[in-house]
Amino acid sequence: MTNSSNSASDFLSLLPPAFERVLTADLPLSGSFVDLVSRFADEPGTVALLSGGGHDSARYHILGIRPWLVLREQAGTVTAETADGPGSVAMDPFDALDAATRRYALPGSEEFAPLSSGLLGYLAYDLKDVLEVLPRTSRDDLHLPRLYMAAPSILVVHDRRDGSTRVHVPVRDGAAVTERILSDFQQELSKPAPVRDASAKAGTLVSGLSRGEYMRAVDAIRDYIARGHVYQVNMSQRFETGFEGDAFSLFAGLYAANPAPFFAYLNAGDHRIVSTSPERFVELRGNKVETRPIKGTRPRGKTPEDDLAFRRDLETSFKDDSELSMIVDLLRNDIGKVCAAGSVRVVEHKRVEAYENVYHLVSIVEGELDAGKSAVDLVRSTFPGGSITGCPKIRAMEVIDELEPVRRHLYTGSIGYFGFHGTMDLSIAIRTATISGGRLVYSVGGGVVYDSNPADEYEETLHKGRTISNALERMGDGTAAAPDARIGWMDGKFKPVSEMTVSVEEEGFAYGYGFFETIRVQEGRILRLDAHVARFRKAWESFFAAPFPDITWKDVVDLVIEKNHLTGTVAAVKLAASAGKPGSLERGIRLMLTARPYTHRLAGSPRKGLRLATWPHGRQSALSDHKTMNYMLSRVAADWAKARGADEAILLNADGSVSETNTANILCKIGGKLCVPVSEHALPGTMLGAILEHLAARGIPVEHRRISPDDLKRAESVYLTNALMGVVPVTEIDGTAIGVDEAFSAEMNAKTSA
Question: Does the annotation count 279 as an active-site position?
Fold first, then answer.
């Protein structure tokens, strides 16, 4: 990154002009502040910072909407989004943040605490790479901004202590325009509030680390401590699940259930943030600096006696006292870099704070900011917070990157505001979920010292993670299972799916040397198991010079379905065989079986069928006769079709005739006759086989013939079939509408699932 004056001047040229005052008015609230936020939660740029519980740091609710400026930073480029559109410059994001807060600095001190105008948003943990030269050995799989800050055109602040609520509008385009913005906002509040669907679908939570891997990472940290590299490291694991639902309802549910001081809801357009953090990172009021590190955690007890015992254990723990004291010293040093000499002091040490799922140990450190230093200077000297990195901080961050497989993004970064009167308040982003691209991720961790017990450290992360996992379960039907709850079968052992791993040296991973079957289980009934096993055996005998395994697959499937509590629903079971290391093929074959809930592709959709696009490249491979793990062509074709608004790609034979789609066989009606495309190499589908048997039993002929893409587009009807979705009509091919005979697909599905 560059910190040149040219970058600064280029950045400032992207920003709107400065303003000198803010219009403020009292705002009577007819409902709760959460209800107020709900009205604007779906608007990109909305940021809500709420306080929960009765802790002394939980005083204000803040809502910012309809920003006149949004700052984002990603991969060294800062983008300013304004009414004139976005503009970008290569620049240090902290320099950009400092330049923006200086440009819009308002005269005098803040009259309406905590702020009347400013930037609201987050600083991702990964901004550490801007402040220090660190190795980057983990993956960034979220590809989200490292900085997101929005300057709202309407800012609402509610004081929980005195009950007052005020709305603030910066006077940027003259008094008349500003008064109209305020009036229109007040008018909006008289309209009915939106009705939200508080339900959600969330799959099983899966961690990027198994229990064993996490415990081995704790042992690795203990080894680093023994060798003098570090004294403490904060080790975390990230959980992930698919998420379909209202992110704000998740936020509202957390707020109702978990009285933490720092709540945040942020709608950044392409992603949303939901946070319920107990920890203040750093606050600035005038020249007064405060930080509140947390170290030491115990679960809440199920009975009053157990609860008190856990609290007393935390209060008397030498390990936790030492851990907190170590981080307090680190933070005293960090804020001391920008505070007046002799002003930094610990005003309270090792107090116990109670939350929904855990107890925490908290200390309070204060100081006085040096004259000429800014809020951003304070953040530069302290970011990221030492309580969630370790000590010494730089080496601890190197160890974190080595042991954690993915970048943390926002987790253990900061959420809050920079006020244009010089105020600032940032929380540590823990108990924080990021929702993007149909998935939800959150991380949990804890400080590891030499005396740490790996199993206890792992369990502590689960206690901390219950805040979000419980909220997901409350929104859904209990399907958001606890971490590592999904059970599979591998080489004769039933074990957590997260522990079913293969080596990168094995040929199943390196070359896709393996194959699989996908089987539908409907309320405990395994559909077409014999056909699947027969096809699986055929592939086995084609690829492996080893006897076919003597296993009663029905029993394995039944047990996996039972262990995953899927007996009363529709499930997708995957049976796979994967080659081992070269030279050990006969003794190195892996066998795996997993199960997951299955939702039909058209569930909840108003469409009657699927749309197809013709992949223009011919294919001819003997591997297509089997359901191999060498699946790259099908995945690329599927992505190509999706980019063109289609659901599936039609795969062609080498001569340009139709073969199948990337996941299904094709059945069509042409000239009144049912037809199946002829292909030198295509997967013999178990569902298609069942349909053909049924039609033959009824005396209905089916013609196997060459079918061109144009023939298919002229067909009276077209259907896709596979074991999971059954028979599904096609409604469109390359933009051409196809007739739909729903009665035929309904009949075939009924007959083949009986």
Answer: yes
